[in-house]
Each structure stands twice: as C-alpha cells, then as structure tokens.
Amino acid sequence: MAGEAAKIAWNGSEPVAAIADAVWPGVQMGSGQGGSAADSGPTGEPWINANGWSIELARARAPRKTIWLVSKPKGNRQNIVIENAYLLAVADAAAGGARWLASLDEQLTEDLAARKEAAIGRWQKLAAALRYFEERRSWADSRPRAVVAVISTFSGANEFMSTEFLNLAARRNLLCSPLLASQAATADFKPLRAIVCVDEEAPPDALRRKLEAFVKAGGALVAPAWAKEFSAGGKPLSSPVPGYDVWRLGSGRVAVPTAPWEDPYSVAADAHSLISHREDPFLLFNGASLMATYLTRNGGGGDLLELVRYTAESQGQGVSVLVRRNYSSVKMTTLEKPEGVDIRQTKVRDGVELGLPAFGVFAALEARL
Amino acid sequence: MPHCITRRTWLAGAGALAGSLALPKRMFSAEAPAAAVAVASCQTYGPELAPTLEKMFDQLGGLGRIVKGKTVAVKVNLTGLPIERLGFLPNGLTHWTNPAVIEATVHLMGKAGARRIRILESPWKSAEPIEEIMLQAGWEPRDFVHAAPLVEFENTNFLGYGKQYVRLVTPHGGHVFRAFDLNHSYQDCDVFVSIAKLKEHRTAGVTLSMKNCFGITPCTIYGDGAGEKEPGLLPRGGRGILHSGSRQPSASVPSENDPKSPRDAGYRVPAIVSDLVAARPIHLAIIDGIRTQTGGETPGGRSIPVAPGVLIASTNCVCADAVGMAAMGFDPMADRGKAPFERSDSTLRLAEELGVGTRDLSRIEVLGTPITQVRFDFRNPVRAPDPS
C-alpha cells in the first residue's frame, strides 16, 4: 500500500475507495527450487501475503466508504492450489469487510470464453463464494474486538514502521485497530487496554495529556522516547522485555525503548509481550497458516471470528480456538458448508475452547451471547 | 563479546582438555557413576501428583539436601511453538512438561527451602518472555510464581537479562564441543534441574532429561541465522546448524572439535546433548510420563496421545533416562540400529563415555514402583482416552 495510499482521496465524496496495489493473498514462494520454496519471514516462518491490515487502515481513513481490493493472480509463485486461489482472494478481502475486484488470469479467461467444463466449475465455485459473503454483508458493519490501538500518521516518514507494524502484528494475532494521529485526540479510548504509539515525534499536547490519563486509569502505553515525560511520578518496574524502561503510572504502565526502534518485526513482538498475551481476546491453535479477524456484531448479541487459510490445505492437526467469553451457542459456516454446523464448547480455565472440524479456505464462527 | 569464565571453571576445563588428549573417551564409561532412581505410578495430574513427587524426592534423600538455601535453575520442556497441538489436546498432555508437574515441583522446592527458583527454556525461534510463551499455550504463569517464595523466568535463547554469555567447559574435551557459551542463568545457579517429558525423538531416538538440555543452547549462537562473528541479538531460527553442522556457531565461541566429523544429525544431536549435560551437570532429573505422546518430540507424523502414568526422578540424568527408556519398553543398552536408535547413536552411551552416569540397569537401584509395573510399550501403544 506504500505510495498508493497517498494517491487515494480518502476524504472524497465517492462512496468507494480502491486499494490498487493490494497483494495477491497466499504464502509467498521464493524463486529458488523452481519457485516451490516458501520465502521466510523474519523468524523463518513462511511469509504470508494478506490484506487484512491494509483494509483496517483504509476503513480507519474512510469509515463510510466501501473498500475494494485490486490484486491480480501471480501464477505458480503462490503456494495455493489454483481452484482455491480465487476463493482465497474473495475471503481475504471479505474477512476485512472489503470486496475483491474480480480479476482472472488469462488462462481462466480464455477457458471460460471457450466454455471449458473445468473453468466453468471454477467460476461457479468463485460465484458461490461471492454469494456466501454477499448474503452476509451485515458482517461488514461489525466492530473489531481489538483492545489495542496503534496511533500513527501512517504516512511520510512514519509510513514504513507503522504499516509494517500493523502487518506483522496481524501475523501474530495481535488484534490492533489503527487510529490516525489526527483523530486520536477525540477518539474513545474506553474499550482499549493498550495503545502503541509508533511515530518517533511526540504527538500534540492534547493527545499526550489524553494518553497520560489513559495510562493513569489502567491502560498500557508503548511509545518511543518522548513518552519518558510520563515517568515523572511513576514507579520503575522490571521490564519483561530487555531493551525497555517500564514504569507504573497511576493504575497503568508505560514502556519506552532504550534505543530507537528499527525493526518493525521486533517492535511488534516486543509490544505484544509488553502488552501481554493475557490481553489476547482469543488463542488460535494449529493455525500457523491462518489469519483471524475477531468482531463484535453490530447491535450486540454476539461475536464473529473469521479464519482465512493462506496455504493450499489444512496442515493435518485440527484447528482449535480458545475464546475468553462464554457464548450460548457457536455455529461454524464455511464456503463448503454455508448452512453451518454447531460447535461444541469445552469449558477451560480462561474461557471456552472450540475444536473445529476441517475446513478449506475460510471459516466463520458465529457466536451468540 | 567478552566471556565470563571463573578461575575454577578455567582450571577444570584446562585439566579436562589436557586429559582428553591423553585418555580415550571410553575409559570413563566404567567409572560412570550410578545413582538411585525413584519411580512412581501416577495416573493423573490431580491431587495425587504433589504427594507422589514428594515421596519420590524423599526416596532420593529429600529435596532439602539438594535445594535448601540454593538458587535453583529449572529447565522445562516447551519444545516447538506454543500454538502447536496434537489434535485438540493441550500441550501439557502430549509433548510439553505438564504445568502441574512444574508447579508441584516448584512448590516442593520452595517448601524444602530453595532460596530462588528460576524457570528456564529457550523457546523455538523466540526471544519472548517465557511467561508469554506459556500464556500463548493457555497456561497461567502466575501459578508458578505463587507456588514458592521467589520464582523467576528467563528465556535463555539469547543474552536475556545477562550482560554476557557464560562459557561452560565440557569435561574430557567433549564429543563435538569442548565448551559452550550459554545464557547466564545456567551458571548463575547452585542447582540445575531438568524437568522433561517421556517422549520419543525423531532424530535422537528418545528425548528425556538429557535431550531436554539441547534447548539450553542459545540460537543467537547455535541457531540458524546466528551471528557469524558475534552472537546475534535475537534468535532468528531453530537449531538446524547443530543438527546438520552446515556451519559453525558464531566465531567468538569455541567451534567444533573436529569440523570434519560426520554431519549426520543422528550422530551430532546425541553427541552434542551428551556434551551439554557434561558441561552443565544436572543435579536433579525429573521425567513426566503421566500423559505424553508417541512418535516424536512434537505433534505430527504417527504421533498419538498415550497415558503411561509414570513419574521418574533421579540425581543422575543418565540413570534417570535409562530407567525412562526401560519404562518406554526400550533397552537402555541399545545403540545405533536398535530401537529407539534406528537412525541415531545413543545419547545415554555417549554421556556414559563422558563419565556422566551409567545406563546399566544392573548398577541402578530402582526405588518405589518396579519398572515392570509401569512399562508402557511406545512401539505398540494404546491410545489414551480424551481427557474429560
């Protein structure tokens, strides 16, 4: 989204905004070994290309616009069976509340024109997936259950660190809501448990005072060196992460790196540990190839957990989720079984665990309170 | 990177290095010490667990004589990613040390007068705090904190809270490494405890109290992506280079004794593990075999959940592992070519050669439940029922 974002008229009157350089979703394959080897992320994990974070940011910039993703298939450089590639493109966009602007590869286009049976079958699966999400458009009005906000201008010198933070936080299932620095002073911090300020420059005085009040009321703040001003009157604490000064302020705490941030992967990992996984609204097991979106349904009454799989097929072990709320019922729908199945809840110490049946590219857990 | 080497450590290492030139390694086998091993049948992680452990420790002479007034480092087994499970089962029922075993042991150590207890692990590819790794698995680290007066955690996969790595020398020169550079917590302790899982291992045959210590090596030095000249700041991968020998650890630490030695993981991993437990002696080995899995150290392949219902403890790690192997239905005298060492050397034999302990059951006194009563055949296993 770098560069393109600056060209989009987020405040324009058009009802839609298009992210023109969305990534084609999937596990990124390297050029070695005939393009069959997965590229690694900073920890050696396969690198997943996903658009969830950029959709979130676009929705923060233009909350009333419908977001469309424009991305084109990249042939055999994606580790995704071709039948599922388009389903993934649809699910990747829809799980974030956006829409994918259908763009077919040349071969499929030609085969459809020639009315080849296999191509028509693929098109029908794609159409069914689009229909699945269209029938559930109300999901797009749901609110993220994130308890962490990331404040930045998300532009200029701050763009790289802030957008990479969002990208890498999403890979960790650290649910974050991007909050534009220009809107933060008037934003509602009540639902938040932690705030990460990514930009090196200090925010305006009004926002600093609001952040201080947030911490004193029990919130956690992770911020660059400028936040040392909050140490006055604070009580030093032992940092759970080397390389940070941490202190208690009121009922909350502030963490400041002892050296300027450089690597967004480390910043995301550090922030997650400083905030603590204790604040994670859910834990996902055997889901290394999955990305999750956890939402509260508009009007209350329940939550929605969407899971998108970015690899070709399930990895063998069953996927399970620990959620920290008790629900009266949980139903799982998938592209293969849109009618859904009821999911048994197993009570555990910190919530309930949900063992999920096998699914393909996408699963949605509709949970009622 | 400067290293912290005490005079005592240096003298011991220098003597050992000189000795290794003069003496064939196998000469130490006959002298390898024997220690009693406590074995107990224990079917659940419920209320029976702590009394069972306490009785076992009493059989070994009491925990107080080992830990009273001491700083105790406890290496637990949290191998793989915290989000990886065998089916829907919590990790503590399959491939991780069960949290109840850790909590009960910590509690008993506190009760026996341990001054400080430090829970250690080097989680895969991660520099995250151990507490955060536990939370990701659905554990509650406060349970351990509340189990004894002073409980701390440290991720030993990197420098951590230390100012420098510490160098521990392998007696008799070691099979692969004559010394290791490790996180400070492995030296800043009076007592070192390995709390392992009763498991098979795809590379090393079995993973018991000794193999658990493969994970004391920091990946900033011994891992994929380790710094070439100096240790990296953060772990960037697993311990692939220890498996494959594809490169040497960071140049600032002792390299392999013989870089032309076999690059076969089946030779290297058991040899390195035996070097590690010689360099960092284990004062108390505890093996959790109440519930575990077959088929390997992490979920996958032919792994199934099993419930051998056994706990093993000893002040000698080789003796503990020998009894552990016997409890798994294996012959502790087995070596390459015989189960479970179809593709590897025996860590037990290699550690025995370094004089760490004997694997000869005829020299080991078994206290408590006889092995025959707890033997569980890992190669012909009965699947454990799902926990209620």
Distinctive features:
heterodimer; A: 369 residues; alpha/beta; Rossmann fold; Immunoglobulin-like; 3 domains; seven-stranded mixed sheet; six-stranded antiparallel sheet; 9 helices; 25% helix; B: 388 residues; eight-stranded mixed sheet; two-stranded antiparallel sheet; 12 helices
CA distance, first residue to last residue of chain B: 52 Å
Radius of gyration of chain B: 19 Å
**How many angstroms separate the termini of chain A?**
37 Å
CATH topology of the largest domain in chain A: the name is Rossmann fold
Main β-sheet of chain A: number of strands, strand sense, barrel status? 7 strands, mixed
Main sheet: strand order of chain B: 4-3-2-7-10-13-1-14
Structural class based on helices, strands and sheet pairing of chain B = alpha/beta
Number of helices of chain A: 9
What is the count of helical runs of chain B? 12
Helix content of chain A: 25-40%
Query: What oligomeric state do these chains adopt?
Result: heterodimer
* Overall number of domains of chain B: 1
Protein chains sharing the most extensive interface: A-B, 31 and 30 residues
**CATH classification, class level of the largest domain in chain A:** Alpha Beta
Unreliable segments of chain B (pLDDT under 50, ≥5 consecutive)? Answer: 1-24
Beta strands of chain B, count: 14
How many individual β-strands of chain A?
Answer: 22
